[in-house]
Amino acid sequence: MHFLPKANPLYEHIPAQKINMPDILTKLGNGGFTGYLSHSLPSFESCCIFAKGKLICVFSTEENRDKTGFEAISLFFDKIVNNGGEINIYRMTAELAMCVHALILGVPLFNGDEVRQVDIKAMLTRLKIQQFNGVVHFYTTERDAVIFYRNGQPVGFYHDGASAIESSPEESRKVAALPGARLKVLSTKPIEELMQYDLLHMVNVGKLWEAAVTRSSVPRDTGLKVAENVTKLENDSKRLSELVEDLADVAVAYLSRQGREVVEKRLAEAGGSTILYDSAKAEAFLGLVEQDAKAIDDQARIDEMIDLMKSEVAGRLAV
Q1: Exposure string for 204-238, b = 16+ CB within 10 A, e = fewer
Q2: CA 85: distance to chain centroid?
Q3: What is the pLDDT of residues 219-249, one digit of tens each?
């Protein structure tokens, strides 16, 4: 199984057989989601990576047999229909989505080399000079730590004991120093190139889902329970409150206290949190938040903040 960052979870441990997967994927795409959706079963895993609403990668692996693209989606759907499993959705920035792509499909520059046999300082210098995009993964049989890179610079750190993407390399150094530690260095294309590939526009996921259901001998509710679940979600004020709080937290991370004030003000003016269920109204709301944010601090990474907010809305309301 691949070691992937599990920071910023929107949903975890959702029973897969209770949801309509093409509907979920389409909502994530239409909502501009950035992050990944994972599905797991014993001896099987699948991962769908999104960047600003584009499905840039689908990967499925069963007993060390890997599939990508069309074949991966087909196998993914078959497993859900016949075996269930769990769905998880994690939000992240576009540069981290690029790094998750590297963890799954990256080109190996080092592949399981012992750390003690590698000149780490020289290697990191080369990555900087080459404007490396991808990950450096240190691991033992019991520990994992990853350094995420964009254009030759570290953009975050993650390890098996972390609950968030970290800014310190300390834990990565500790794992690299463990007896028997090994490393993988996995390279990928810049996120702009990866986003030129959108499986949602290349594959008819609805038809693949129908084919999986037809092949299955397991009876499924074809829509009634899904509709009931959506209705229940739309009436769940607690869930909406959590979404608004998450949006405010994102704004605070980029604009301090004023960020929360902007979110609360613009939501109130728009008619309250229920407008987030309407894609046009949600887009208008985020446009006003972006406008206010740039007026507060035009040097902050406002585009990134808005992308994270879009992912939050799309991910929360997709299930």
Answers
A1: ebeebbeebbeeeeeeeeeeeeeeeebeeeeeeee
A2: 19
A3: 555 444 444 554 454 456 777 888 999 999 9
Q: Do 288 and 266 touch, CB atoms closer than 8 A?
A: yes
pLDDT at 222: 47
Residue 121 CA, distance from chain mean position = 30
Quote the CA–CA distance of 17 and 318 in Å, as a whole number: 15
Instruction: List the chain domain ranges.
Output: 1-106+190-220, 108-187, 236-318
Q: How many residues does the chain have?
A: 319
Residues 107-146: pLDDT tens digits? 999 999 999 999 999 999 999 999 999 999 999 999 999 9
Task: Please report how many Cα atoms fall inside a 13 Å half-sphere around the Cα of residue 88, on the Cβ side.
Answer: 16
What does the alpha-carbon distance between residue 209 and residue 3 come to, in Å, rounded to a whole number?
27
Pairing of strands 107-114, 86-91: unpaired
CB 307 within 8 A of CB 94: yes
Q: Residue 139 is encoded by which pair of tokens?
A: 């691991």
d(Cα 26, Cα 236) in Å, to the nearest integer?
22
Place of tokens 């609360």: 264
Residue 246: name the closest of 267, 230, 270 by CA.
267
In the chain the beta strands, taken as DSSP E runs, fall at 9-15, 35-41, 44-51, 54-62, 65-68, 86-91, 107-114, 134-139, 144-150, 153-159, 182-187
Q: For residue 46, what are its two tokens?
A: 């699948």
In 3-state terms, what secondary structure has residue 64? coil
